[in-house]
Specification:
54% of the residues lie in helices and 11% in strands. With 506 residues, the protein is an alpha/beta fold. The chain folds into three domains: 3-127, no CATH class; 140-331, Rossmann fold, CATH 3.40.50; 363-500, no CATH class. A five-stranded mixed beta sheet has the order 1-2-3-5-4. Helix 10 (198-202) links the parallel strand 1 (190-193) and strand 2 (209-214). Helix 1 (3-28) packs antiparallel against helix 5 (101-127) and helix 8 packs across helix 9. The longest helix has 27 residues, at 101-127. The chain is elongated. The two termini are 32 Å apart. The relative contact order is 0.07. The model is unreliable at 129-134 (pLDDT under 50).
């Protein structure tokens, strides 16, 4: 925008604010608009002319003069006080003293306050820095290919006999993909099934298996958690389980290829509510299971991997075959308890608190169900991003990204504040996995303090885990000397960065 156009816009905005202020002050008088607008019109015209002249001369209206909050307040207050003072002196000199002081000075005061508010907002948007580089956007296929590039380069040659056996229950493409993910040693005692019933897994021939391959997509398995627990129990200590899933992204891609854009749009909306919303609400879950049999729900990649990890598996490899994601999972532990509330809107997350005690932090769900079980897996694949968050974190939903930007996900943590688990300002309570990434000395220091809702991160905006630890250490050192003053100072700086510099942790 050139200087001339900028000046026209700002002059117009200035007069609009002054006019609205004048109308507002006359509305507050008992006689109202009809009486005071005509009687004070001369005052308003004089004030408006002086308002414009002084604004231009003083530099209040001019590109490049107001660059920060200090210059904003200086120019606005000086210009508006000068214009109001000159107008008052002219009216006094002309002996025209029949004006309401409320209208005269109230108009100037209201206009000044509005200019400061809008000017502050303007500076906030103009000066908002890009605090971290925009994340690289990868498709699901690109993410899997990049994450498992080494595994794909060193994959075994598909066993022709095994591929033929697998083709009896699935496509050739998927059979070759599954065959290439397993070595001969891992198939010394192999079971190939195509079932969605835990009963059929339980009744395999006696003995532990080194590998179980299920050709039935896990979308088709009704009681998936129970099924995976049963598979875990039939494998040897570090046995392998191969399965496949049609993810949400691949399902949407398949439907887009099958239907025209109009038809896809008509299908996508009811499909979202029927297959993604109704199974997750307690009021409608039973109805959904009655009509669908509880099978074929669309799974996100995060939920599919999370369910496997919950069942005691670790993810060893992923690769796509057509629209199916094939997963190689290795038995690691006994299954964790399935608490049955994987689809709730409010979730309780175990976090490390004072003295190392675990407590539950309450948040709105922003991730796909079962995402909590794959945090270490994503860290191993992608490490951390610039701001200390996990890089390429595909667990976060579209709704979740919006909720995090506007802080909706943090609202339930007010309950933690009322319970005394956390305070308003303090280091953020961390998960066990993220806590383990810290240096020993910082971990020992961290558990000496009560965690908080707003961490020092927002005051210092460090980049990377090492910088975050240094920021927290600086906060601890200051807090030990002056607890109240430190929290007030850090809180004020954090609020400023959040409001005026668009600071976000995610």
């Amino acid at each position: 925008m050139n200087k001339g156009r900028f000046r026209v816009y700002t002059l117009s905005a200035d007069i609009l604010i002054l006019t609205l202020s004048y109308v507002f002050m006359t509305m507050l008088k008992p006689a109202g608009l009809k009486a005071y607008i005509p009687s004070h019109l001369t005052f308003f015209i004089v004030l408006a002319l002086l308002w414009l002249i002084v604004s231009v001369v003083s530099g209040k209206i001019g590109r490049g003069h107001i660059i920060n909050l200090r210059t904003l307040f200086t120019h606005v207050l000086a210009s508006n006080l000068t214009a109001t003072g000159i107008a008052a002196l002219l009216l006094f000199a002309s002996r025209d003293l029949g004006y309401s002081r409320q209208v005269v000075f109230g108009t100037a005061l209201t206009a000044t306050l509005l200019e400061l508010v809008f000017g502050t907002l303007y500076l906030a948007f103009r000066r908002a820095p890009l605090l971290q580089p925009a994340p690289e956007l990868l498709t699901e296929r690109e993410m899997v290919a990049r994450a498992h590039a080494a595994a794909n380069d060193t994959e075994v040659t598909p066993d022709p006999q095994l591929t033929i056996r697998l083709q009896e229950g699935c496509s050739r493409e998927r059979a070759e993909a599954l065959s290439a993910m397993i070595s001969t040693d891992e198939t010394s005692r192999l079971a190939i099934v195509s079932t969605g019933e835990a009963f059929n897994i339980q009744n395999l021939e006696k003995g532990d298996y080194t590998c179980i391959i299920n050709l039935k997509p896990i979308n088709s398995i009704r009681k998936l958690d129970k099924f995976l627990d049963t598979v875990n129990g039939r494998l040897s200590g570090d046995g392998i389980f191969l399965c496949s899933v049609e993810t949400l992204e691949q399902r949407a891609q398949r439907l887009r290829q099958k239907y025209s854009p109009v038809i896809y749009f008509l299908i996508a909306i009811p499909d979202f509510f029927i297959n993604r919303v109704t199974p997750r609400l307690r009021l409608t879950r039973g109805l959904w299971e009655f009509f669908t049999g509880g099978a074929n729900p669309p799974f996100s990649r995060a939920e599919a991997l999370g369910r496997l990890c919950r069942a005691g598996f670790s993810i060893r490899q992923e690769r796509f075959a057509g629209n199916m994601l094939c997963v190689k999972a290795q038995r690691k532990t006994e299954p964790a308890h399935a608490n049955g509330n994987g689809y709730g809107f409010i979730i309780a997350l175990p976090r490390v608190g004072r003295d190392g005690h675990l407590f539950n932090v309450y948040k709105l769900r922003t991730m796909h169900p079962y995402s909590e079980y794959i945090q270490d897996y994503i860290y191993d694949l992608h490490d951390l991003a610039e701001g200390g968050k996990l890089k390429h974190d595909f667990r976060v939903t579209t709704w979740g990204r919006f909720a995090r930007r506007v802080w909706l996900d943090e609202l339930p943590m007010l309950y933690n504040i009322l319970r005394g688990d956390i305070k308003i300002f303090g280091v953020r309570p961390l998960s066990n996995h993220y806590f383990s990434l810290y240096n020993d000395d910082i971990r020992d220091r961290r558990i000496q303090y009560k965690p908080g809702l707003l961490p020092p991160y927002y005051a210092d905006m460090p980049a990377g885990l090492d910088a975050i630890q240094l920021s927290e250490k600086k906060y601890f050192d200051s807090w030990d000397k002056n607890p109240v003053g430190t929290d007030i100072r850090y809180f004020a700086r954090s609020v400023y960065n959040i409001v005026f510099r668009s600071a976000r942790s995610a």
